């Protein structure tokens, strides 16, 4: 039975440093105070996109209201201001990821474009017949399909790395599959459907013994715990702003400086050139080499605001709070008859995917929506991971730092009411 004491348990668990209070954080998010179908919104679709604090919304509005200009190519005041804001955002991303230099950060539309960029530049130059790309079964489609496309073109092969019953990557199988044919390992820092957090640092070190490069998909990780790309020793690290409380249409690709230096352009146009002539064109250095055309300048400004907002929190306390909230949710959902959680990796982010016996996942999501609860239903762009459990569809409740134990109770009550109807 839920009591005031159990509602406070996750908050008490997050007490290191100055602590963390989700109710204080919620004041920064205007959308969390709206109603849906006559009920207070319970936003549990954070794996798809996070909501935006007023600091991000205000930064976007301020840029368009007072500093809107194209960058790098203007001599007037607003061009300089916009350029400084854009490049300041690049520096903020580099600091956020623990990158050695802002020049190792390339702005992209998001994780999907970043993976495609690496596949079409590094992959086209380095993959050949018989080469292998190892991709765990838990990956998002965005970290599978681009490798299939370039592998087909280059006559290479994508090799799936199996999962164990609890949703962890089978480390013995991974070690066995690695060979000197392995040119790249592409893996998520956190699974969007199982929540699994693989031992990325250890897997990267093992891959490097065979001379393979490692790309880490950080889309689901960066909002939940600090990332240090140098400590991970990742060759590439990618993420999306909209999963980090920032705007859509902006993300970043980190690459080791020596790896980026050997990459050629993917797209051509303005901003990525040094000199253009019909006889010969020379290119700008990285990162501009990989940023053809006008980028999402306002998005970069909004991304910096999101990073500033998130890093102003006590992230150790936030991580502890989310872990406690997830444990509370697991226990609470266990009381719903017929509900089965998918995946049980000991290291996981706050993503809970489940099925409800006798109910189609889409019907569950629609019923929850009537109570103002937003969850995701479907294959979650991770069909191989779901098929590992014999499923084609499931319901996903994904939590962020602004979610509360009371919202978990609302979710559980709605599911129990559904069972009783």
From TrEMBL:
Its needed co-factors are:
pyridoxal 5'-phosphate
Enzyme Commission number: 2.8.1.7
Q: Signal sequence: where?
A: none
Reactions catalysed, as given in the entry: (sulfur carrier)-H + L-cysteine = (sulfur carrier)-SH + L-alanine
Q: What class of enzyme is it?
A: transferase
Gene Ontology MF, one: cysteine desulfurase activity
**Pfam families, sorted:** Aminotran_5
Q: Write out the entry's keywords from A to Z.
A: Pyridoxal phosphate, Transferase
Q: Where is this region: Disordered?
A: 1-24
Domain Aminotransferase class V, first and last residues per copy: 42-411
Into which family does the record put it?
A: Belongs to the class-V pyridoxal-phosphate-dependent aminotransferase family. Csd subfamily.
Tell me the protein's name: cysteine desulfurase
Species per Swiss-Prot/TrEMBL record: Streptomyces ochraceiscleroticus
């Amino acid at each position: 039975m839920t009591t005031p004491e159990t509602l406070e348990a996750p908050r008490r668990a997050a007490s290191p440093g100055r602590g963390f209070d989700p109710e204080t954080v919620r004041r920064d998010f205007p959308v969390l105070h709206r109603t849906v179908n006559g009920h207070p919104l319970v936003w549990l679709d954070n794996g798809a996109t996070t909501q935006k604090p007023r600091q991000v919304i205000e930064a976007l509005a301020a840029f368009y209201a007072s500093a809107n200009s194209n960058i790098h190519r203007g001599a007037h005041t607003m061009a300089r201001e916009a350029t400084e804001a854009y490049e300041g955002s690049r520096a903020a991303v580099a600091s956020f990821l623990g990158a050695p230099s802002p020049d190792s950060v390339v702005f992209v539309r998001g994780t999907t474009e970043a993976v495609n960029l690496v596949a079409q530049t590094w992959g086209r130059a380095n993959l050949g017949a018989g080469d292998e790309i190892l991709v765990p079964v838990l990956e998002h489609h965005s970290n599978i399909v681009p490798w299939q496309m370039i592998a087909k073109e280059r006559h290479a092969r994508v090799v799936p790395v199996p999962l164990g019953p609890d949703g962890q990557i089978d480390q013995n199988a991974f070690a066995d599959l690695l060979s000197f044919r392995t040119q790249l390992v592409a893996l998520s820092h956190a699974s969007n459907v199982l929540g699994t957090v693989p031992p990325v640092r250890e897997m990267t070190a093992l891959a490097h013994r065979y001379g393979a490069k490692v790309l880490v998909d950080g889309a689901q990780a960066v909002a939940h715990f600090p990332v240090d790309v140098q400590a991970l020793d990742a060759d590439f690290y990618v993420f999306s702003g909209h999963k980090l409380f920032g705007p859509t249409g902006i993300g970043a690709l980190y690459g080791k400086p020596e790896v980026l230096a050997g990459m050629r352009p993917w797209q051509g146009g303005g901003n990525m050139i040094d000199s253009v002539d019909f006889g010969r064109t020379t290119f700008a250095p990285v990162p501009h080499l990989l940023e053809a055309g006008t980028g999402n300048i306002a998005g970069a400004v909004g991304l910096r605001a999101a990073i500033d907002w998130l890093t102003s929190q006590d992230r150790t306390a936030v991580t502890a709070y989310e872990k406690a909230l997830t444990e509370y949710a697991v226990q609470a959902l266990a009381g719903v008859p017929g509900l089965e959680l998918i995946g049980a990796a000991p290291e996981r982010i706050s993503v809970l995917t489940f099925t409800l016996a006798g109910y189609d996942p889409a019907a569950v999501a629609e019923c929850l929506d009537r109570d103002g609860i937003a969850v995701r239903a479907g294959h979650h762009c991770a069909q191989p991971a779901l098929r590992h459990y014999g499923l084609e569809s499931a319901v996903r409740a994904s939590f962020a730092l602004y979610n509360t134990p009371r919202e978990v109770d609302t979710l559980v009550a709605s599911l129990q009411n559904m069972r009783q109807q």
